[in-house]
Write a structure and sequence with these properties.
Length: about 200
Amino acid sequence: MQPVINPKHPGLAVRVADQGFAAYIWGSDFSFEVRAYAAAEINKPVDQWPLETITPYRKCYGIDPQEFASYQNAADSAIFMAFLDDAPVGHIVISTNWNGFAHIDELAVHAPARRHGVAKALLDVAQFWSRKKKLPGIMLETQNNNLGACRLYERCGYVMGGIDHLRYRGIDPHTAEVALFWYRLFDNPLENPLSSPTSPRLVP
């Protein structure tokens, strides 16, 4: 796949992960601040979800670059990296799930590079990859304490298909963290996702 650039952010490009993937992971900050837990509701906008505000804390999921080593150069999976002015700032891991949907296994952006369109550019490439494989859509999971991610998915046309209140109880029986499953359904899997003037553009 050729590199992809974003017309709104000319210094932003996305391409297939290279040998610098591990070094980029170890050198990045993927943490985010949690200020509230949401009582998510299907078919209701994120900004209308009731919130339980808490004392803010930073949350970070441990990311191991070796976990997805087999995803590179595979027929049913891929890893893409985002670069801002040639510096690696984000990545997305995508694969074909058992139910026929593309599955975003991981999406993360280096904290200082946020609000530059990085996550949106990575999601656009995931959509391109999924449509090229003629899959019916994309699915992913996030949590009710990651409201920034929920708002992003909502803006990108994802809808929530399920809520799992018990998924994390095995780790912490008293957790308030709830799993939220989002889906981006394609009306026409063969439609060209790059036809929109705001979509990423392939460059030679």
